[in-house]
Amino acid sequence: FDAKVNELENNKEILRIPVKDQDTPRTPASRAVFTILKGNEENNYKIETDPVTNEGVLTVIK
């Protein structure tokens, strides 16, 4: 994935990551879990799961 954001942006959604899951939709087993493993040492970003679409939503929060 590739995304660009103005360095002055704050609390801005910058990327959505789609997920395909074979579990029954909208069950605990089908909920995607996202984690930033590297590159966020200064906590400039957060990633959450959209409860409706199950996409990962990457947001700049610096």
Concise overview:
By secondary structure, the chain is an all-beta fold.
What are the key terms here?
62 residues, mainly beta, three-stranded antiparallel beta sheet, single chain, elongated
Which secondary structure elements does this structure contain, and how are they paired or packed?
Blueprint: E1 12-17, E2 45-49, E3 56-60
Antiparallel strand pairs: 1-3, 2-3
Polypeptide structure, described:
By secondary structure, this protein is mainly β. 0% of the residues lie in helices and 26% in strands. The protein has strands at residues 12-17, 45-49, 56-60. The protein has a three-stranded antiparallel beta sheet, with no helix packed on it.
The largest beta-sheet arranges its strands as 1-3-2
Order of helices and strands: EEE
Give helix % range: under 10%
* N-end to C-end Cα span: 20 Å
Main sheet, how many strands, which sense, barrel? 3 strands, antiparallel
Number of helical regions: 0
The helix-and-strand class reads mainly beta
Q: Kindly state the number of beta strands.
A: 3
The Rg value, from CA coordinates, equals 13 Å
Overall average residue pLDDT: 91
Which consecutive residue ranges, at least 5 long each, have pLDDT under 50?
none
Strand content: 25-35%
**Rough outline:** elongated
